[in-house]
Design a protein that fits this description.
Elements: H1 3-21, E1 25-33, E2 36-44, H2 49-63, H3 71-77, E3 81-82, H4 85-100, H5 110-115, H6 131-135, E4 143-146, E5 149-152, H7 162-179, E6 185-189, E7 192-196, E8 205-210, E9 222-228, E10 231-237, E11 250-254, E12 261-263, E13 266-273, H8 276-289, H9 291-301, E14 305-309, E15 314-317
Antiparallel strand pairs: 1-2, 2-6, 3-5, 4-5, 6-7, 7-10, 8-9, 10-13, 11-12, 13-14, 14-15
Helix pairs in contact: 2-7, 4-8, 7-8, 8-9
Length: 328
């Protein structure tokens, strides 16, 4: 082989390698974040695992209440603390959902969540004996962001964004994908989902919504399968994390009125919204509202919603159920 032929062959080989490296394929990333699992599927010509973890870290540094060095921990321990854009975005959505749900969703219930054993350590504390006094230091309406600073009427007011942060984490990974030209993806963190574009099958993403099964261990049984894209899906329920006092319908959702676990006729609430952050907060709010008011909220918003009730009936509104899963 002469020098020119050898050069041509080498160039062809390099072109083949470069072309192969640039072919888009569906990739997967999975692991643990914020004490739960995550699963991500995306179509890209490169591995974006590091960027996924970077998005998680950024959200966690702002909103992870279990991290003593996070921004939310500094807010909880102080007064008039400057906040970043992530905190402000989640805070404003929490304010909105608090308002449209008549206060049912409120991320300042942290002391009560801890008192009942659903917070850090997952063990009830002696504070259950002073619920009424703890109610005096709750209420997101008693806080505001002014000139980039979080101001509290009472410095003891604290935030726990656990019911909205996972959804926001999904949204932040989705935003990272879109910045990098990735349009086909599904992000799942602890059961909350954000998806865009098409699945590997070339169609919308088919996602299973769990049937509520009251159990100490995680068991999966499909209630239905929905076809979604360009939106967020979140489910909240009392069937995995619940009170052991025997009261039917009693779970980890805390009432802003009584300061005690809500007694509700809803086993689970699933909501589809433009962002997973909003869906996450709304699903939690609906668990606290009971079915009559939850249905009204879903209808007013026009968001697809699925409520599984304690009497085994199912209520759905505008739900995009997969044709293969629909009843004949």
């Amino acid at each position: 082989m002469n020098r020119i032929s050898a050069f041509t062959a080498l160039a062809s080989l390099l072109l083949l390698i470069i072309t192969s490296a640039c072919v888009k394929s569906y990739r997967k990333a999975e692991g643990m974040v914020w004490h739960t699992s995550y699963h991500v599927t995306y179509e890209s010509d490169r591995d974006l695992s590091d960027s996924i973890l970077a998005a998680f870290n950024t959200v966690g540094q702002s909103l992870n209440v279990f991290d003593s060095t996070s921004l939310v921990s500094k807010v909880n321990n102080g007064d008039s603390i400057p906040v970043d854009g992530h905190f402000a975005t989640v805070y404003e959505m929490a304010r909105r959902v608090n308002r449209i749900s008549d206060g049912a969703f409120d991320p300042t219930l942290g002391p009560l969540i801890d008192a009942w054993g659903f917070g850090k350590g997952h063990k009830a504390t002696a504070d259950t004996l002073r619920i009424d006094s703890l109610l005096n230091i709750t209420g997101i309406a008693r806080t505001k962001i002014e000139n980039g600073t979080l101001i509290k009427e009472d410095r003891r007011i604290s935030f726990n964004f656990s019911a909205i942060a996972k959804g926001y984490g999904c949204d932040m990974v989705a935003e990272m994908f879109e910045r990098n030209g990735v349009s086909n993806y599904l992000v799942e963190i602890g059961g909350e989902i954000r998806c865009g574009g098409k699945s590997p099958s070339g169609n919308k993403w088919r996602v299973s919504i769990d049937r509520p099964i009251r159990s100490d261990s995680i068991r999966h049984d499909s209630q239905c399968i929905v076809e979604i894209s360009g939106c967020g899906l979140a489910t909240s329920g009392n069937y995995r994390n619940f009170s052991t006092d025997g009261a039917p319908g009693t779970g980890h959702t805390i009432s802003v009125t009584t300061g005690r676990p809500v007694v509700t006729d809803i086993l689970s609430a699933s909501v589809i919204a433009p962002t997973t952050m909003e869906a996450d907060a709304l699903a939690t709010a609906m668990m606290a509202l009971r079915s009559a008011r939850a249905k009204k909220l879903a209808e007013n918003l026009g968001y697809p919603t699925l409520l599984v009730l304690a009497d085994s009936t199912v209520w759905q509104h505008l739900l995009p159920i997969s044709p293969e899963d629909a009843e004949p």
